Amino acid sequence: MHLVLFILFGGLCVAGAVNLLLQRHPINSALSLIVVMTSLAVLYLLLGAEFLAAAQVIVYSGAIMVLFVFVIMLLNAGEEERTTGSKAAYLVGFPGAAALLGVLAFVFLSQKSALGNARLGSFLVTTSDLSRVLFRDLLLPFEVTSILILVAILGSVVLARKEQ
Amino acid sequence: MAGTEFSNAMMDVPLAYYLVLSAILFSCGVAAFLIKRNIITVFMSIELMLNAVNLTFVAFAHHWHQVSGQIFVFFVMVVAAAEAAVGLAIIIAIFRTRETLNIDQINLMKL
Known about the structure:
The complex is a heterodimer.
Chain A: H1 2-22, H2 26-46, H3 50-74, H4 84-110, H5 112-115, E1 117-119, H6 127-137, H7 139-160
Chain B: H1 2-11, E1 12-14, H2 15-35, H3 39-64, H4 68-98
Helix pairs in contact in B: 2-3, 3-4
């Protein structure tokens, strides 16, 4: 069951990521990124992170991607054009990313037996477990992030404001 | 007995598979970051890389039975939300002054 769900949603993740890479129109890339993020939420559930799965759907697939789609439509972004810069990027980008993937996959697969198996339901972090750590041990960092959010709100309002 | 062993085997996925999946997502993010010419798509590929790293954090949190890995993901999500808001505001400001989203034409900080 775990393996079937993993292959199904992992495959959906990879398909979405490759589609993001291949599409030329930003709105298509944004929609495939939503597919990636929603399937990642299912993978979080399989790994026993129920709060993060909900937060992934609400924050990433909901808030952040809606913001992206808003901006794409607001700026009326069309298909990207090919330029001389993109030729160099193709020459460096694909082999570089393939080499990175090769190295990482080699390291992880060579340590496969040492890393062991992930068993469904062997480790479940409930929201109360998470909040106990977050609001007791890490209260100060949590409050600091709220200041970060406040600064981000003010900064985005100032940056996106029309100049007089 | 054979049935329960089979179902036990079906309950397990090697942790390395999760890590390889996150490596694939990260590499797609890196490739899209380098290849894409649209500034919004470049920004989206950064989000893809952040998501790939989040999957690694959750997988290792599951492996070590530690909550702190998921706390990290929580903070990464908060920072990513703040970063997306500010970054998209910067993109709107850039589009106002340059009327383009092509990163080849956005090569100066000052207009």
